[in-house]
Amino acid sequence: MPQTRSVLCVVGTRPEAIKMAPIMCSLKEITDISVRLLLTGQHRDLLSQALASFGLIGEANLDLMQPNQSLSGLSARIMGGIDSILEQNPPAMVLAQGDTTTVMATAIACFHRQIPFGHVEAGLRTGNLSSPFPEEFNRIVASHAASLNFAPTEGARQALLREAIRPETIHVTGNTVIDALLATAAQKPRLSLPLPSDQRLVLLTMHRRENFGRPAAQIFDAVLALCAAFPDVHFLYPVHPNPNIRDAAHGMLSRSPQVTLTEPLDYPEMVAAMQRATLVLTDSGGLQEEAPALGKPVLVMRNETERPEAVQLGVAKLIGTSRRHVFREVARLLTSPADYAAMAKGVSPYGDGCAAARIAALVANSVLDATWPVPGARGATPPARSSIRLPTVEPVPAPPPQRPSPMPDTVHMA
Ligand SMILES: CC(=O)N[C@@H]1[C@@H](OP(=O)(O)OP(=O)(O)OC[C@H]2O[C@@H](n3ccc(=O)[nH]c3=O)[C@H](O)[C@@H]2O)O[C@H](CO)[C@@H](O)[C@@H]1O
């Protein structure tokens, strides 16, 4: 009789929840595995909203955020909190997604306890430790600690190989955000906001630390200039709660009748917004992956990206953050049908909606010592589209209280 083995998924922020949800769903279909969900609460409100969108309940929440805490303080608290859980109820494997301090601290805690760690979305790199900071460093630590690296693309696999990560740990699976997106889009989500139906919609998001201050002011200035030049265009901007962005956004944009500023949207509403939009203007990683899959051009307000595939395919473009560039590139897509059509191809380099099924099979093979075929791998039957049905989550006991050189496949802006 096979023994049930547990897999602990650790999640700290909104995108981690969105990208982990399909994996939890797929794992739950494997009866010999029990799925546990631990929250670190790194982004408290946004995390709760994203979990609710997928019907996930974190049974234990380390809730470690404190005002003005240092990165080292946060790392130490996360590591201590997770270590207690690993000690009390050791899982067969731990999974974490992305590049936050949650992921880095989880990877180190697993390494110290010699518990297998699987890194979801492995191999994203800018090649610049200062940008994104501290995420680029977090990614490198996670890759080295992982016994399974789930690379979303072949480019990510190559980036891991260049760092001498053992090839047998690396599996190209696609990105689970495409699973979440396609499953959510299939449910035909509605946009409940009152938006003018006779205007073209530009979906705007911005949250990155590098864009606080002057870049944000330049971008908002460009938005106002675009509103003046294109009276038939409306901007929808779900504003990130970080006060560095929120205050500037409301201060500069709230008086324009062509801009709708909202609280962050829940995921189905966000998918509906992407579907309704003519184009997406963003500095988000997730939106760079999602919008091309819906056939929407993405203008990326950064100078470099660790997601070069969409840029190389021509469905995303790095435009920097200057007022002049943002205005010019948005105006080009609004006025030139040929330029628009060249970007609105409806192709995604980030997956086919089956990444979670592949990851679940690889995890099962590892923790159950099985050799099941990995869906979609050479010779295996391609899986059905992943389902949005989500697992019942097993409670995780709360821990005791704590005392108080650019790479060849990295794209840079020309
Ligand atoms: C340094 C860096 O590159 N880090 C990235 C960053 O991820 P990001 O840039 O993708 O983060 P966001 O833009 O906040 O989230 C995006 C998701 O949220 C949905 N969304 C958005 C607005 C809204 O109102 N409602 C929503 O539902 C949206 O559709 C999408 O799925 O952190 C992750 C680890 O936390 C990393 O792994 C990831 O590399």
From TrEMBL:
Residues 27-362 form the UDP-N-acetylglucosamine 2-epimerase domain. Keywords: Isomerase. InterPro entries: UDP_GlcNAc_Epimerase_2_dom (IPR003331), WecB-like (IPR029767). Residues 394-407 have a biased composition (Pro residues). It catalyses: UDP-N-acetyl-alpha-D-glucosamine = UDP-N-acetyl-alpha-D-mannosamine. Pfam families: Epimerase_2 (PF02350). Its EC number is 5.1.3.14. GO terms for molecular function: UDP-N-acetylglucosamine 2-epimerase activity. It is an enzyme of class 5 (isomerase). The keyword Isomerase applies. Residues 378-414 are annotated as: Disordered. Belongs to the UDP-N-acetylglucosamine 2-epimerase family. This is UDP-N-acetylglucosamine 2-epimerase (non-hydrolyzing).
